[in-house]
Specification:
With 174 residues, the protein is mainly alpha-helical. It has helices spanning 18-33, 38-56, 67-79, 84-102, 105-114, 118-121, 132-152, 155-162, and strands at 5-7, 13-15.
Length: 174
């Protein structure tokens, strides 16, 4: 059996590890039930085995599975069990982690308030970035940018902006 490689979110390639899937499934059961059970252990192993086989038997050898596709398979595996409540916990947790990964507001707010961001310090030469009223304006701008990028604009528009194909002034700069 050949080695299975998957693509991580950052583009790096990594060896497929079905035990990570087992652990994720067991954590979803634990979060739902509050205790480890034999049923959870069995289902976690079955789902991991199924996903490994599915990835291994992929009919397109040039297709490299990514983390999101693997997580979709985990969701489908959990949904195929009688425990839809566990699938729901997994989906909610996954969505929460995606929100955190995409949230740049917290980082920006910290940089503005501590004065450690060269961008915000030089954003406007007529403003002192260490003055509270200026920081308030910057907080509003950073929050607006983050929400626009994550929730208001289609991701293909954000990508086109990031690649310099189009420009949204004061909306998604970052």
């Amino acid at each position: 059996m050949g080695q299975i490689i998957i693509e991580k979110r950052d583009g790096k390639k990594e060896k497929f590890d079905k035990y990570k899937i087992e652990e994720a499934v067991k954590k979803a059961f634990l979060a739902t039930d509050g205790e480890e059970t034999e049923y959870a252990e069995t289902k976690a192993a079955n789902i991991a085995d199924f996903i490994e086989e599915k990835v291994r038997s992929n009919s397109d050898p040039s297709h490299l599975f990514n983390v999101e596709e693997i997580q979709d398979l985990v969701e489908n595996g959990l949904m195929s069990t009688k425990r839809k409540d566990v699938a729901r916990k997994y989906i909610i947790y996954r969505n929460h982690r995606n929100e955190i990964r995409g949230n740049t507001t917290d980082k920006e707010i910290e940089e503005i308030s501590t004065g450690t961001s060269d961008y915000w310090k030089s954003e406007n030469s007529n403003k002192n970035a260490l003055v509270v009223t200026t920081q308030r304006d910057y907080f509003a701008g950073a929050t607006s940018i983050d929400i626009s990028r994550r929730k208001l604009l289609a991701q293909d528009i954000v990508k086109a902006h990031d690649e310099g194909i189009i420009h949204f002034h004061k909306k998604i700069v970052a």
